[in-house]
Design brief:
553 residues; alpha/beta; FAD/NAD(P)-binding domain; 4 domains; 17 helices; oxidation; FAD; FAD/NAD-binding_dom
Length: 553
Amino acid sequence: MKIVVIGSVAAGTSVAAKARRNDETVEIVVYEENLDISYSVCGMPYYLGGEVESIEELIPRNPKWFKDRFEIDIHTNHHVTAIHPLVKEIEVYDKNSENGFRETYDKLVLATGSYSLTPPPFNLNTYENVFHVKSMDNTKAIDQYMHNQEIKKVAIVGSGFIGLEMAEQFKQKGLEVSIVELADQIFPKIDADMSYHLKEKLKENNVKLHLADKVESITGDRKAEQLHTNAGEDIPVDLVILAIGVRPNVFLAKDAGIALGDTGAIKVNEHMQTSEEDVYAVGDVAESFNLITKQPSYIPLGSTANKMGRIAGDHLTGGSLSFKGILGTGIFRLFDLTVGFTGLSYREAQQSGFDPVVIHNIKPAHATYVGGKNLLIKAVADRETGRVLGAQIIGPEGVDKRIDVLATAITFGAKSEDLFHLDLAYAPPFSTTKDPVLYTGMVLENARTGQPVITPEELVELQENQKVIQVVDVRSKSAYAKNHVKEAVHIPMPDLRKRAAELDKDKLTVVYCNKGVTSNTAQNLLLNIGFKQVYVLSGGNTNYQYYIKSKEN
């Protein structure tokens, strides 16, 4: 059997390696249109920022390594121009010899990846200082340009993973950085109230932000010298990075009549097989599906590409591996913050037909007496079943292990009450006695079974609509004097039992403390003595003040 793979970054090389591990007799041929293979796209910003010293560290494998280790023939600088499924042939153009030829296959794998978007008025062929950060060729070109030119001012268009990572790295190189983002928030993938913390971190590091804006025109002939935005801003630039997203590279598949999915990527089954017999698709070119909703999903990540490649390589050689879906889990660093997310947001849960309950949990990553710093966790569960649906976490430490624990729990269908029963590792330098994940489960379960929470956004909306509501601050006098929720009355927790008669049992009541622990005690007290509706303010006054500041900015 002869397997031909088109593309050799994460997914394509994973296909080839797994197929060889399973079967020594199969012939494996890979065609790659660029010179480099099996490189780390995710590491590119850190090389350009100087955190990775050598570009060779991002290219750990070459065709000779694959030939020696796996007896796999990888042909670089070879561009596949057409697929002919009926006769099981592809057309290939050798850019070295400038000759074309046909190649036969028994099984074909498309690992053609994705391509970066270039929005108007940008044109890569017109402006020599406008770049994507998608391929190793891009990275080398940016690196060379920065060495040959005096670069002081950089504009980044888009605030996704690459855009924010590039902003961090360029600031650490001492450059002036501006971000232009079409959405009204930084990193639109996460919720606006969580995105606020990213915005503040960028401002703290003197990154200039142009939100809800876009570049309308460019001054400059051969080089972009100034960007002019829809909002009337003029941004001087020496270098421009386009980071507004990618699309699946499906041109070969479309021309060959291979079916695309709802997301525009190639539609595949659980074994990565396409609509065309003996043709597979993996990586950024292939469609995924959401593990919770079972609906088509397109979230191109290197981790998913590697997984898809292994599954296809296994199935091609008689194995039984199958693709189980994704949660869209992601993580990145922004200066001294880490941002992690997995599963569905509150809005996505609603759109998927769930009745979601949402909570905010502010807890230290480990014991404060050994330097633990707070995490902000926003989590979502289904009100009816208790199934955990998603989470977003921001903090200076401990985000990675919590988001991975939550992603694992969601993958196996955990309910909110299950989180509390996880036997997680505890010692003061690493966690708290009730780990933030355990506490998240406690609060979610309480919120859906009779001890409800209300978000700052919901509370403000009620007040703005002049709903009859009483808000009770159970913190200390000094804390209340520093700042408090609008229209809140102050009754410290130690006085609440004897002063509860000052409150109306029939009114909708919201209690809050600094982060949420003491207010849960207050909620229990009031419910136990006959109050009808008592809500805890999600994340307490701390989260409320974050929300108010986000609206002011």
